Amino acid sequence: MMSSERVNGSMAGSEQGDEPVTAVEVTHSPATVSSVLAVVAAVLAVVASATSLLAMAVSAFGLVGVVAGLFAFESERAAAIGTGIVFVGVVLSGVFGNSLPLLVLGALATVLSFDYGQNAFSVGSQLSDQTDTVRGEVVHAAASVVVGILVVGVAYGVYAVAVDGLSYGALAFLLFGGLLLIWGIRS
Amino acid sequence: MNVDEILKRLIVGIGLLFVVVGVALIAVPDPFPFGAEVIFAAGVAALLAAALTVRGRLQGEITETVMPDPERPADNQRPGDEVDRMLYEMTELRQGVAENSEHLEERMDRLGVAIVQDREDCSVAEARAVLESGDWTDDPDAAAFFQGQRTEADEAGFTGLVQDGDDGGFKTEFRAAVEALLDYGEIEVDPIETEEPPSRFERIFGRSGDDDAEAGVETNWNEADSSIPDFDTNGPLEDVSLHHTNRWLGVTAFGLFAVGVGVVTFSPALMMAGTVGIAYTIYGRVSAVPRVESLAVERELEAEDPQPGDEVAVTVTVRNEGDSILPDLRLVDAVPDAFVVTDGVPRLHTALRPGSSATFSYVARVERGEYRWPVVCVSRDFSGGAERTSLLTPETELTCVPSLKVTNDVPVRAQTTQYSGDVNTQKGGSGLEFHSVRDYLPGDPMNRINWKQVARTGDLATIDFRQERAATVTLLFDTRQRAYVASEPGKPHAVDSAVHAASDVFGALFDQGNLVGIAAFDTVPCWYDAGAGSEHRERARMLFAQHPALSPRPPDRQDTEGGYIDPMTHVLRRLSSNSQIFLFTPLADDYAMEVASRLDSKGHLVTVLSPDVTNDQTVGQRLTRAERTARVRNLRQRGIRVIDWNPDDKLRLQIDRAKARWA
User: Fold this and answer.
1) How many angstroms separate the CA atoms of A151 and B337, rounded?
2) Higher-scoring residue by pLDDT: B646, B213
3) Residue B143 — φ and ψ, nearest 5°?
4) Each residue's pLDDT tens digit, B219-246
5) Cβ-defined contact of A111 to B277 (cutoff 8 Å)
6) A116 interface with B at CB cutoff 8 Å
7) What are the helix and strand counts (H, E) for chain A?
8) Which of A25, B80, B176, B506 is spaced 20 to 30 Å from A140 by Cα?
């Protein structure tokens, strides 16, 4: 038949039956940059608490939790608890007489680790592993560091100026008062 | 004034009091009004508060927008899923034992009878007798399935089932019966390679394990797995939500703990370290609404006029046209459900200074239809404390219309109309191919008179040629929800396969000069009268692309058995009596088969084009394959042409094969 020949001659390959479509695999692991930064910050906190062996042991244990939570279990809760334990280590080192600069550094590093860890999970779940997230993560991390530097600067200033003349009770009351005010005033 | 308000004021009041006392202590350090015990108690209170904060963090919810996963292929039902689900419910959950077993037994009974009838060529009663005798199989379990059901299930109700449901007695027999029927009916199946994936059931019945575990959702039915209720939007910017993320929840604990321990151990250094935690609490609470209004989104498509199934590169550009920085932007392109992203990811995380821009690109396999879709934008402030979710919709539209290109030669059958066309009929008349010579009748055209015979005998005779006539063909689609099944996730479902094939078939039939119409039986009536001409063809193209009944997305309605209108009613009312039918259906249930035989008995010549989307990896899938094969055989026995077509192969080859069989 005429039409049949023409058709066979111009056979273009129909759409169906082309190779099966493979969709892009989507995974939601914690974002890499923030994860690494969180671990780096936690390591810094461990180092800052290293003036006492016991304190360092505790915070190192917390560090293991952070690493496991971010990379092994991918569990936000595990990472957050790990950060908490790191901080317990830092505070313990303070109890055993760590110096002020190291303590502030340790506290700052722990809070940053907490922030980055949470951000890693947040970016991971809202976007995905294959996404280009570097710029966003770096900007977030940098903003947190800037805030940290400001805080430390102010804290040092207050300490240098006032603590000598500041009674221990006054400091406690001011801090508690400030905390309660922050809690109370929330938009 | 509610309790929260009072509590808040109380806290603020106490805070103010503390600050005043602190300042007073600085001013007048000497008369220390309380003993150290009070301060010590305050330290202990701080530690308690820290513990409470930690608890709040661990129990509290971080309210982040859940983004859709538009890359994932559509998770269409697979044929047989409902059978597997029923078996699962019965054996694992102990639910609906009576109804499910009744339903399954009924299906098995029908299938068994059909297969036995096909093989033994006997009546229904005889077939049932064969099944109940148990001689048809060597497997005692399989034989027991058909023998036991009448007596036990009817008399003892479902108690018997529940008792041996412990070791899956019903399931074992059911499995054995399906296997035996497949064997008896000589139906080709591969051995089951993997056991039934449990994730399937976890997906249906909710996931187990903790929230952090990767959710087993494998769907891109966008709304289902995201916290954004709807992606239909008209305006260029639509706000979905603005909320606090609570991501800093618990950071106060660092401050409280350090200060508390510092107070208890009389360590000013620790108290100072605690200020870090307090400072970040403030940082997290100071939040500004990100100015998403100034974000301009453009989407560029690489292809102008893509065909269904084409891969189109998409590039999305975002530009901050405002004068404030957007520090944290999380963008997901809400690619329509029917599309599959095959390369790249339609997502980006970035920060944009005023005037700067960022792009991301991906490749998507497009499907027929008209689309305009938004970019989901989650924008946060620096700290991430506030989150604004909005849908930004660029102007770009994508229209994907099948070309109706001719790739197949489609066999048309002898039922024709009065219009001249391409189909050779058995009738003599004017035409090209010699048919017969007959006596002259007055009025016969002069150029058909057989002059040789006149010269030889002196009698007038007329030559008849085979008449070539056009056929009326209606392409009829089964687009009920049941037809939206795919053999594997990510593969096109049966309706997609059918419409792709039909756009080829349409072109071929049209080029042969036939009158081609389109209809679908569904709750959305779809009817396009048979016709000819290039305008007809063009409108058919648009209909393939736009008609809701032929949409790549399954209809939302479930077609329930009760109180339903026969979806074929509107088709039957309009179908002309001499129309041939090309029925596109996966033959997923008996209804589709009935439609074919009903049309056949009304005198239409029916050709069924059935994409085979059944699988053979679970009991249910095997059962549906057997059922479908039985349906195909049944239709063929009634003289209805069936092109049993594996969507992985080219339709042309299958048609050639079928033609060879029919010839």
Assistant:
1) 48
2) B646
3) -65, -40
4) 444 455 666 767 777 778 888 888 888 8
5) yes
6) no
7) 7, 0
8) A25
Backbone angles phi, psi at B326, to 5 degrees: -105, 100
The answer to whether the Cβ–Cβ distance between B272 and A103 falls below 8 Å is: yes
Inter-residue contact B42 to B50 (CB < 8 Å): no
Distance CA B473, CA B662 (A): 19
* Assessment of whether the complete model's pTM goes beyond 0.90: no
Contacts of A184 (CB under 8 A, 6+ apart): B8, B9, B10, B11, B12, B15
**Are B351 and A139 a contacting pair at CB < 8 A?**
yes
Q: Cβ separation of A114 and B330 shorter than 8 Å?
A: no
Token readout for B568 is 């074929």
Which residues between 46 and 65 in chain A have a beta carbon less than 8 angstroms from any beta carbon of chain B? Answer: none
User: Cβ–Cβ of A7/B409 closer than 8 Å?
Assistant: yes
User: Which amino acid is residue B343, in one-letter code?
Assistant: D
Minimum-distance CB partner of B407 among A11, A28, A171: A11
Residue in A17, A90, A155 closest to B649 by CB: A17
- In B547-650, which ranges are continuous DSSP H helix? 569-574, 590-601, 619-637
* Closest chain B residue to the Cα of A127, Cα to Cα: B347
Sequence letter at residue B214 = E
Is the reported ipTM for this assembly greater than 0.90? no
Q: Are B421 and B470 in contact (CB under 8 A)?
A: yes
Number of inter-chain CB pairs under 8 A, A vs B: 337
The alpha-helical segments, DSSP class H, found in B28-136 are 36-59, 81-88, 97-120, 124-133
Query: Taking Cα atoms as reference points, which of A134, A179, A150, A144 lies closest to residue B383?
Result: A144
**SS3 call for B558:** coil
Dihedral pair phi/psi, residue B522, rounded to 5°: -165, 175
Which DSSP state fits B651?
A: H
Q: What pLDDT score was predicted for residue A163?
A: 59
- For the segment B442-453, the average pLDDT, to the nearest whole number, is 87
What is the token pair recorded at B445? 């055209």
Tell me if A133 and B65 make a contact (CB, 8 A cut-off): no
Q: What is the pLDDT of residues A92-125, one digit of tens each?
A: 999 988 888 899 999 999 999 999 999 999 999 8
Cα separation, B320 vs B328, in Å, equals 12
Residue with tokens 């260029």, as numbered in its chain: B236
Q: Please report, as a single letter, which amino acid is at residue B264.
A: V
Neighbours of B514 (CB within 10 A): 26
Q: Does A136 touch chain B (CB under 8 A)?
A: yes
Nearest to B38 by CA among B258, B257, B255, B264: B264
Query: Which residue blocks in B435-533 are alpha helix, DSSP H?
Result: 451-457, 494-511
Contacts of B650 in chain A (CB under 8 A): 13-14, 16-17
Token output for B453: 């015979």
Give the C-alpha separation, B258 to A89, whole Å: 11
Instruction: Please tell me the distance from the alpha carbon of residue B427 to that of residue B432, in angstroms, as a whole number.
Output: 12
Rounded CA separation B253/A87 (Å): 10
For A72, which DSSP code?
A: I
User: Using the beta-carbon criterion (under 8 Å), do B285 and A166 form an inter-chain contact?
Assistant: no
Burial environment of residue A178 by CB neighbours within 10 A (0 to 12, 13 to 18, 19 or more): buried
Rounded to whole angstroms, the maximal C-alpha distance in chain B is 150
H helices of B121-157, where? 124-133, 140-148, 154-155
Beta strands in B334-451 (DSSP E): 340-343, 347-352, 357-365, 369-371, 375-380, 386-392, 398-400, 420-439
Alpha carbon distance B209, A186 (integer Å): 35
Q: Give me the residue label for tokens 């007038």.
A: B460
B261: number of Cβ within 10 Å: 23
DSSP 3-state of B204: helix
- Three-state DSSP at B606 gives strand
State residue B220's pLDDT score. Answer: 43
- The residue whose two tokens read 């042309």 is B652
